[in-house]
Design a protein that fits this description.
- The structure is a homodimer.
- By secondary structure, the first copy, chain A, is of the alpha/beta class.
- Chain A is about 40% helix and about 15% strand.
- The first copy, chain A, contains 12 helices and 12 strands.
- In chain A, helix 5 links the parallel strand 6 and strand 7.
- Chain A is globular, with a radius of gyration of 22 Å.
- The two termini of chain A are about 30 Å apart.
- At the A-B interface, helix 1, strand 9 and helix 9 of A face helix 1, strand 9 and helix 9 of B.
- The structure holds a DNA duplex.
Chain lengths: ~400, ~400
DNA sequence: AAAATTTGTAAGTCGCTTTAACAAATACGC
DNA sequence: GCGTATTTGTTAAAGCGACTTACAAATTTT
């Protein structure tokens, strides 16, 4: 049961978060602006602003004159106010970003890893992160924690993790938390990418949206009623194994015609392999394949129908403000999807404009890692942050 | 933006709701029990309980002795504390219930209506309801309002309302609110049914679940993160036009293979008509058709695959605690669905047991109306009730 | 230069939860 | 059977943060 009583102290934390978010979304703002936007009184805003200032999370700009009345002091987030780590773990690869409070990437590393050895991978990651921090790029006392995202689903025999073999039931979160001695949040990669666009990208301010993440596999990140959605086990948004072609390709899950067998790097590699071209990673794919290739066109022709159905069912079930398309795929390929998928079939969102319904994600291939970092901010500042986004069943490594 | 600041008075309303809900879900409870369950202090609980008592919403039971210590006073909801009206408007028919605070149906009426005449229908409904109230079955001052549910989607040209022709853009809510002079909440029928099971039925206490509502058409009601989901326009959960057979039946929406063309009364009637049997309403269907009929079996054989896909995609996208199957369909037919659909295909919910994943709704065919009534309770008591469940685009009648 | 407007602060009030202390009523131990 | 432990629920006072009211300060408008 999520029914939690409240009291004055909790209320204050809520208001602190409200002021913080208001500045983030609409800043720079004066204290009076904030009072108007939040319905808090001016004295209350002043006091909360003082507190945020004391924490170093916001900063004052130069006095702004021009209008009638006393000049106002614009307030904005202080990028240096807090730092978080974001880790995107994927097949054979880990991306780590160190971000500031406004999503600026202060440091970035990508490691090639043998992810089939889980223990070794975890040790390497922990060691590398410690090294990264020792280089002293940031004030260590301002490091709030780390977010970790990886392909889901979590804890489902026969289904997971379909894109990261052998990682089912590995207590990634606990292991890293213990080793790095900082809070670690865990979610799937789609949720990470959604979080990034939600806080720092084009999905700012949305109450309801869906991020479709295309990478090795395909997944989504969900925001409903202004909150991230994890579902009962942290596995919500798992669109990969939704059937779009009942008589279609056989899937590793045992069903036929799952979306992932049409739209994913894996499905592309399969198509290439069936035609005698052996490619085995995203890097190789990017290096060897381009927009005009016949094999790409063939694969795309087969993939666009299923993707259209996927978009359609997301619209009908979530009736979101918008759907964002992004992920690990090369940019030109996402662009092709965007172009070929139009016109969108009729749905509950048909009263919105085509441009509104489906949009390109703005952040690049690091989105998932950046969003992971953002998870750690939300977890430590938002008193109502939903833990349930995290995956549940974890066992000892 | 849903970022709303809080203060002590709002906090009190939250806590009042928390205490109310705690009693509803776990009652009968002593004041001390409530304090333990909510983390509120004992004096706070006492004060909030006094307030709820003053409102007449709860009542004390007989002193409960037996354990160590002073005997406790069990508290429970007072059924007579508040009444609400629930209206389920559907093709050719309106069901109205007058319910008490614990979902007990104090009065029920079903009217056959010519719903193709919207103005007339609205007038009739308003008149009948006024008459119903005049009969003086309840203390009028304790009537909190009305909930209205009807088939969606709302405000989508070419798609809605697929099961209630001519009602698109009709300002039902405003019209009834003005005529009856009480607050009226509006949502789709799936949401109504979900609400009924959530508050009074087998879905009590869930944070995440989906109700699949099968009637003239097919829809769902969604609860995510402990809140109803409406989406941007109040149209979330519109599963009817999700494509499950890309090469399948043509649908009135212009697409092919929509779920509704396989599982809905409408699809059954179509199948019968193609085979020379003309039926035109749910009543007729119930009267003329039974479990063993060949035509039913044929239709069922074709319907069960699509339904299985529908359940599968709901599981994968929402990862709910459970899915409930119910609606306007005759009970024996829902039972057949429940039996034939097993085993459920693999999904993110496969780690749950089959019995947990899909369950029969407990409330009968009045569920949608009862849930509509429950909407009015939540709207007036829960300070964080999500208005967005309501349909948005409404125009004057 | 006076008036109007707007920003932001200071002082005190208000509402609600909390802590601390305690009275009342029961079961339990001897 | 009586004192003790336990639990319930209330009373009184403290604490906390938002609110209202009043006002000083800095600018534009007239």
């Amino acid at each position: 049961m999520s029914l939690r009583a409240t009291n004055v102290s909790h209320g204050k934390l809520v208001n602190l978060w409200v002021v913080f978010e208001t500045i983030r979304l609409h800043g720079p703002l004066s204290r009076s602006d904030i009072a108007r936007l939040t319905t808090l009184s001016k004295p209350s805003v002043s006091s909360l602003v003082d507190e945020l200032d004391g924490l170093g999370l916001i900063r004052e700009g130069a006095l702004r004159t021009g209008g009638v009345g006393k000049p106002s002091t614009p307030l904005d987030l202080n990028p240096e106010g807090a730092f978080t780590l974001g880790l995107h773990l994927d097949y054979g690869r880990a991306t780590v970003v160190l971000t500031d409070l406004i999503g600026g990437v202060r440091h970035r590393e990508v490691w090639a890893l043998d992810t089939s050895d889980q223990l070794r991978t975890l040790r390497t990651i922990a060691r590398q992160i410690k090294g990264l921090l020792k280089k002293g790029k940031i004030d260590r006392s301002r490091l709030m924690g780390m977010g970790l995202v990886m392909p889901g689903p979590f804890g489902v025999a026969g289904l997971s993790p379909t894109r990261l073999p052998g990682w089912d039931g590995v207590a990634v979160r606990a292991a890293l938390e213990a080793d790095l001695r900082m809070p670690v949040m865990l979610a799937n990669d789609g949720t990470g990418a959604a979080m990034a666009e939600w806080r720092f990208g084009v999905a700012k301010g949305h109450e309801n949206f869906v991020y479709v993440f295309i990478g090795n596999g395909i997944g989504t990140g969900l925001v409903v009623n202004g909150r991230l959605v994890g579902g009962e086990d942290g596995n919500a948004g798992e669109i990969a194994h939704v059937v779009v072609r009942p008589e279609g390709h056989e899937c590793i899950c045992g069903k036929h015609g799952c979306l992932e067998t049409y739209i994913s790097l894996d499905s592309a590699l399969h198509h290439f392999r069936r035609n005698g071209v052996i490619l085995s990673s995203m890097e190789e794919f990017e290096r060897c394949v381009g927009p005009g290739d016949t094999l790409v066109e063939e694969w795309l022709a087969e993939a666009i129908g299923p993707l259209r159905l996927g978009i359609n069912l997301i619209e009908n079930l979530f009736n979101p403000e918008a759907i964002y398309l992004g992920g690990d795929f090369p940019s030109w390929l996402l662009d092709l999807f965007m172009a070929r998928i139009l016109p969108l079939p009729i749905s509950v969102n048909s009263s919105h404009s085509q441009q509104t319904r489906l949009r390109r994600a703005a952040l690049g291939q690091d989105a998932a890692a950046i969003g992971a970092a953002a998870l750690a901010v939300a977890a430590s500042l938002n008193p109502d942050y939903l833990q349930r986004v995290q995956a549940r069943p974890e066992y000892e490594v």
